[in-house]
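fwd from M.: "can u put these together and see what the complex looks like"

so here's what she sent:
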Amino acid sequence: MCNSCNCSKNKSDLTLLDGVLEKYASVKGSLITILQNAQEIYGYLPTDVIYYIAEKTNSTPAKVMGVATFYTQFRLQPIGKYLIMLCQGTACHVNGSAKILKTIEEELEIKDGETTKDGLFTLKTVACLGCCSLSPVMMINEETYGSLTSDKVVSILRELRGKEVQ
Amino acid sequence: MKLVVGQGSCGIAAGASKVYDSISKYNDGKFEMGISGCIGMCYLEPIVDVYDGNELVHRLVKVSEKDGEAIAKAASNGDFSTVSNLFISEEDSSFLSQQTRIALRHCGIIDPNDINAYINADGYSAIKKVLSSMTPEDVIEEIKVSGLAGRGGAGFPTWFKWNAARSSKGEQKYLICNADEGDPGAFMDRAVIESDPHNLIEGMLIGAYAIGASEAVVYVRAEYPLAIKRLDEAIKQAKEAGFVGENILGSGFSCNISYKAGAGAFVCGEETALIESLEGKRGMPRLKPPFPAQRGYDDKPSNINNVETFANVPWILLNGGSAFSAMGTENSKGTKVFALTGKIKRGGLVEVPMGKTLRDVIFGIGGGIKNDRPCKAVQMGGPSGGCIPFELFDTIIDYKALGATGAIMGSGGMVVMDDSTCMVNMAKFFLDFTTKESCGKCVHCRLGTKRMYEILTRIVAGEGKEGDIELLEELCVSIKDGALCGLGQTAPNPVLTTIKYFRNEYEAHINDKKCPAKACSDLLSYRIDAEKCTGCTLCAIKCPVKAISGEKKNPQVIDNEKCIKCGNCKTVCRFGAVFVE
């Protein structure tokens, strides 16, 4: 637990991680695997979890934080219910992904990296999803949406929002 | 009668699972159903193949959920004339028939979830042959004869790397498969793992035998969840069948295969950064020498090869190295898989023998540019590669020939561009990518890419200055010199090639504050053609900043001071009255 700043609001249930740590803590080179599992459990990497992992793997918080901040997969803030990953790969760029980004930003009133106030959507641009023939492409959680147009994107987002109201 | 629905990531994204479920719903039991992986005709997905025994009798393309009932009825009756509107055209069939498939030979044909489907297609015959009648040195010799070179982009002779790892001292050696496919626009490796994971496993087993490795790992990027799932299942099946694990096929050779997911870092495609990542660290490249063959994973001798490189290995061992080297050119043997995307009519996976021209691929197989717009260039090799202009499309696909243009073969990404693509903007796009992906270790890469990106951003925003091109060129040279790894060393390539071939576009942006491709919004003016405008005022209504005015039924006018160049007016105008200059 952090002693130098007041991040005690990160009161994560660390016991949730014990199964993972039992399996991997003593396996050399498993830090990234541990962090991936932790993110699956908590939805993101809270600071107290980072400190706990450092403690249990005989590492330092700085080293663990160094790895967590190096890779784009890891997030240090919670995300919304729906994580929108908008592909910004070459094919998507050539086929108009910049316009799609603008459309999403306007519709949800958030910028890349932000979460809507109602906690429903988080927007993240990603390097390439590998579905280039369907460009422009986005993934929302596990679902892939291709051949996007501004209208199609708005319709998808409004449909998801509509589900919440119900 | 068997209906096989293609289920690669793209197919599923296009609705293939829904098509499968829809047909299943109406299956009266008179026909079988199955799945396959990705055949690589992405622009035609979802695809349903109809088999009578082992013979493919019909290929239905662009199938939708609502076609399910009709297809099921047709399969039940054995009469597909009712769905002939879904038959693939002869022209579209030529997309595949013009290809020579080695690495992709099973993709989109066999069921990736079933090891028996692989075995029935001669799967695991190569490893049987190798373990029963060849020494590791024999294997390396066969690979040498084949001329197989690294398909990840570097094009280094595979036999040489295997031999180096074999010759290194040490009991414990590692074979690593680089499935980090980070080049935006490339998905060849994803297709192989999703569609033919056993082929990859078999290729790796042969490689492990050749170098003397008892442990093999696939480092696969996290952004490929379906590929990871299929690989996981395939490894389990291969273990159960005795192809992976202890004393394989009673030969005395043991090899365990596992996989580890990446966590989103393009630099981890560089082999030493990949090793760092496998070791649970920040993916920062190491100095070479020592090479991984001497000191790699856990400081032990390691050999890293790309997915596509391994995918060729079983075929080479079964058919002989000479059969592989009979294809291609003097410098580049065998075939290469490309992911053809961008402004192309027929996009997807294309595998051709080395020596075909870019024109053969882009126009012959790809059908040319969407909407028949003028073709401008093709970008090859991702952010490490370069742009080759249309005038050079008779260049052959060959490591040396492509290198001579200033571009590279790369891992296979081939993004086609037309006259509406701004090449300065493309250079900026790639620098945005490499700046973000730079690991930060080397000053020249870390700061140099950032500075180049800043200059390019100024240029496309209309703030280019005299001397900017020269400054970019100077930065390119120093970054190449000062960078430790391939990411930094090749980051300047998109800039160098676009300056070389499209210098006029840079000059137009800087000197005239104009974008010849009409793509850079800050350099554009939106105008309304008074002759075409009917005064319906739809544009004025849709304008977010109320920059359009005019009486109803009279030509509208855009106030360029207020205009934010969002393009809404052009999008909504039904009369083509809005134009950009």
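replying to her w this: The helical segments of chain A are 18-24, 31-42, 47-56, 61-70, 90-94, 97-108, 150-165.
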